Amino acid sequence: MSSVSTDIPIHADGETVFPETVWEEEVAFIDRIPRPIAMIGILVVFIAVWQGLTSFGIVSRIILPTPWETAKDIVFVGKNLASGGYMLQAFWMTTKAVLMGFVYALIFGFSLGILVGETSFGERAVLPYLVAIDTMPKVAFAPLFLAWLGFGIASKVALAAFIATFPIVVAVAAGLHAADDNARMLFRTMGATRWQTLFKMKLPTGLPHIFTGLKIAAVGVMAGAITAEFLGGGNGFGELIRVAASQLNTPRVFSLILYLSLLGFTLFWSVVWLERRLVFWHSSTVSGINK
After folding, report:
1. CA atoms within 13 A on the CB side of 52
2. For the chain: N or C, fewer Cβ within 10 A?
3. Where does the ABC transmembrane type-1 domain start and stop, copy by copy (predicted)?
4. pTM above 0.85?
5. Alpha-carbon distance 253 to 80, whole Å?
6. d(Cα 31, Cα 37) in Å, to the nearest integer?
């Protein structure tokens, strides 16, 4: 919403002088609420609705525990993690699968992204296959990875990397095309080699695109690792969630998901932190979109 503020025209020496038109941006009330207060308010409303659903019997407490029951289980899981119990070992197994999957996704994603973005062969021959695979439901590949790699951590890492690779491929390929024609012509005029052009012009220019893909991959790699653990068993948090769900221990399911979200949150914001230091010059960072 915006409004126009104008004053009455001034008559001076027989001439009419119109003042400058001033555009005043009207900020809605909801946008003036400080961020911490807004976030706390949303959380309070969410918990109140949750409590209401269980207190009035709208949803059975067998499938939806009360906030208090969930809070008690969150404390229990936290104590087990802090004391080095079996949950800490499970959390470490999931963390290893997530981190290794992300590293492999970076390696394959950057390699394929450069192949697609830098060569006509990659764009014409490889990209159609990548697009075809990307359109498939990648979670459905979980049984195949389990059959090929067994029920150990290798199948979890493979599915996590498989899901996280494609956003990186697309982001790297798009980033390599982000440089404008003037910059390309300048490097050609200076006699830069193909590798110099790639590492000194195309990759730095494409960093905003690349980090967008990395943030999507950071979220996807969690889904891949947990899905593989959920279907293939093992010793990770996904297996603990499956066991708790089979016992209708819904407070435990909620608390395990909460701690898993902390892992995903940490990975995501690690990427954002790195982006702010390397791409500080870009508008999305300067304007605070990622803040």
Report:
1. 6
2. N
3. 91-269
4. no
5. 15
6. 12
